[in-house]
Every structure is written in C-alpha cells, then in structure tokens.
C-alpha cells in the first residue's frame, strides 16, 4: 500500500561567500532525507538558483531568478557572512530581495514560509573585507529585529551543520506525516544480526545520547582543567608581585630573575591552554554531532518529551558554566595585557598567553552559540509536539 509523503521545499538565499555552507547543506539534507522519508513520511527539497534556474533575460538577473523560483516554497533559508550581495533595481542585493519577497508572503498569511536566517561569525582576512558590503550587511542584520525577526549565529562549519540538523529536525517535526506502525515494521529486515555492537550506520538514539554524554564530560573536564590553571597562574602572578625586588626595577639583576620566573609561570599556563584547545574542539564537534542526531531521532518519540526536556535543561546548565568560564578567562587576558613590558621573555610569555586565550575563547563562543541554536530547535520540537497533542485531543 503506498504511503503518504510530504515534500517541503527550502529556498536557499545567500551571497557567494558562503559556498561551503551551501555544500554542507546539500549533503546534510541528502543524509536526513534517507531517514525522514521512511520514518516521518517527509523529505526536504532544496530550491537554489544553481539547480532550479535556467538562463534567461529580464530587467536584471535577479528578475530572471524571481520568475523561475516557485512562490509557494515552505522554508526560506538565508545564510550570510561578510557580504550582502550585488544590488538589484529593487533591493540592496539579490539575497535581500529574495528575503523581502518571502517576508511579504509571511506577513500576508502569518505562517508561511518559515523564515530562518543565519550569520557566520568567523574571522576574515582584512584584504578580503569589502567595507561597503560589510556595512550594508550590518544594516540588513539590524533591520531584522525591527521586523520581529530572530536570527542565529554560527562560528564554523561544524556549528553550522549541527544547528541546521537540529533546526531542520524541528521543521520536520512540525510538518511530519507519520506512516503507520505496520508500514514502519514492514521496512525492518527479516533478519538483523550484531545488534549488540552497532556500527555508525546502525546507531540509534541511545548510542547518540551516550556519545553526547561522554563528550560533554570531556568538555567539562577541559573547562575545569583550564579553570584550575587560570586560578593557579593568577595566584602565582600575585605571589610574584609580592616578591618584587626591594630595589624595584632599578635592581636590574633581581628584576630580570623576577620577570623570568613570572614568564615561566605564564608559559606553562599558555601551554596548558594550547593543549586543551584541540581537546575542546574535538569534544564540541562530537557532542554537537551526536546531540543533533539524537534530536532528529527524538521525532520518533513525541509521546514522551521528558527526555527532550531533560536534555534542554542539561544544555542550559552547560551554557551557564561556559559563560562563567568565559568571564574568568577574559579577566585573565586583561590582567596579562596590563603587565608592564619589562623583558623580552615576559613579553613573549604575555603574547603566548593572549594568543592561546583568544583561541580558547573562540572555542567557547562556538560551543555556546551552537548549543543556543540547538536549544532553539528543541523549543520548536516541544511546541510542535504540544500543538499535535492539542489537535489529537480536539
């Protein structure tokens, strides 16, 4: 018996500087569709000018795109980084014009399309920054709040993928057409072996939750290690201050020895930071990947939302812990910067501490921003479940 299937069209709008994110989106949607087509009776179709627009002529190139892109897509997805895009006769850029058309539809009916906009917050070489484009982008970003919009920020490609996985899951949950239990059972192979040792292809909700829990513990351990090291080096620098030579820095020999000891303390601290940066980055990527996969699979367990609510509480606690750690690290960076330029050894140590602190803080920012995005997706899942429950009770 044929099963009902729903195709949700997602229109992707972006300037040319986020080509890598667009490629990630292609592979991610292909992966998720393999799961959702059978489990939820739903698939996503990406609508992009590269695949859905043929050559043509009009008043400008954007008008050609507008004429060929369907007006009834379900989700508008905007991605921006350092550019707003090429101006058109009607808007600040082609991407902005596409957003304005989507926003006009949303205002007209109050529900569709779903509008999701993402901004990449990652460094860019100064030589590649177009001041005019960047200024226009900031103006557009500011205008979204006035329209009642809420946008998401991602730091890197792993953060983008984790956020998109979670947010698309929330959209899928909202629109899903679930097959009957008998239809799902018909898809189970008659003989399945090695269930006790699942491969990555066989992993289910429990395995993803186990990975998430283990890697979150690694994140916590790395943060605690750095926190302890920060406290320790702070105490050491305070002690060095009390040990300042009686003759002050005019006693050159004693002052050099004192500065060298302080530099050694700071170099050890910088090395601790350096070794923990890849640990935190790896744990973050694994944890977020497992968590976003778990959130996708939780669409199969909407009858019991307690686990999803528990995960959300856990994430909020992690964000609070990360935020507290950031405050301490920023304070250490400021204190390190304020140390006088006494000797080349101390200056090098200061630079090493500042460089590694900045890298560690960047990792913290990536962790926090992506966790916030996943919490937003969880909120949407819970809202969708609540709405479905109300419909079933009506």
Summarize the structure.
Helix content is 65%, strand content 8%. The chain is of the alpha/beta class and 394 residues long.
SS field, number of helical segments:
11
Q: Which strand order does the major sheet show?
A: 2-1-3-4-5
Mean pLDDT: 81
Structural category: alpha/beta
Describe the largest sheet: 5 strands, parallel
The total beta strand count reads 5
Low-confidence stretches: 177-199
Assembly state (oligomeric): single chain
**Looking at the structure, what is the overall shape?**
globular
Percent helix among the residues?
Answer: 55-70%
Describe the 3D structure.
The chain has 394 residues and is α/β, with parallel strands linked by helices. It has two domains: 6-154, 3-Layer(aba) Sandwich (Rossmann fold); 205-385. 65% of the residues lie in helices and 8% in strands. Helix 4 links the parallel strand 3 and strand 4. The longest helix has 50 residues, at 344-393. It starts with 5 loop residues before the first strand and ends with a helix.
Keywords:
single chain, 394 residues, alpha/beta, five-stranded parallel sheet, 5 strands, globular
Question: Which secondary structure elements does this structure contain, and how are they paired or packed?
Answer:
Blueprint: E1 6-13, H1 19-39, E2 42-47, H2 49-52, H3 61-68, E3 75-80, H4 94-109, E4 114-120, H5 131-146, E5 152-154, H6 157-175, H7 181-186, H8 205-242, H9 252-297, H10 306-337, H11 344-393
